[in-house]
User: Fold Alpha/beta fold hydrolase from Tepidiphilus baoligensis.
Amino acid sequence: MTEHLELLHEAPSHPVNAPPLLFLHGAYVGAWCWQQHFLPWFAAQGYDAWALSLRGHGGSRTDRPRDTLSIDDYVDDVLRAQERLPAEPILVGHSMGGFVAQKALERHPFPALVLLCSVPPTGLSGSLLHMLLHTPMALLEMNLFTAGKRKPHRSLVKALFHHLPPEPDLARYLAASGPESLRAIWDMMGFARVDRAKQHPAPVYVFGAEHDKIIPPDQVENTARFYGTTARILPDFGHTLMLEPGWERAARAIAQVLQPAAQAA
Assistant:
């Protein structure tokens, strides 16, 4: 079976002169996490806004066992998706999606990357050590969730959000989430590190969250140093900033760094 990829789209009513935005989700979720707030907001600012569900996530299907899906498979999905867009997109990747975006830049010359609370180019080892030391119950619950064992996951929810969404929204987000590929997680442990020498030249904008317990600010700073840039740590946010109350502040910060890209397009 050919992989079917879900692409969500919000067209701008008053387009700006800028590349499209292709949003890449993190582990356990799908393109729906961008549809809630970010896609319509960026479309309202004039951006042609798209969100991809990687295979096995959201509405994207695969005939392969979930745990065999690799980061390279997810990169293939990004390259296929960009061919369906009207122009070369800026990649906006969150968490695992940020790692996929970095690997995609090894294979294709995208105009720019925006990394949000992204897995660092060197992998997840620093993040997992931080969770083991500071939020061990959240790490345990993350492993249970990966294994498909659905529980309330109270510690994991507290690690994902600094400010909890309204209860009906939170319940909907958890119901829409699902296990992640063990192969992809192992890849991010260091078996598929980003090779800077292979990456095409492009601006890389690095954002983190002040209260992120999954990818803490020091890991975000490491990513910024890798790209020779400065990390922007957004105050009063947790890891899942696109779904937290106050998400507009994060969206505005991203739009601010995209303005030069829009003007250069």
User: Anything to note?
Assistant: The longest helix spans residues 247-264. The chain is about 40% helix and 10% strand. The domain at 6-264 is CATH 3.40.50.1820 (Rossmann fold). The chain has one domain: 6-264.
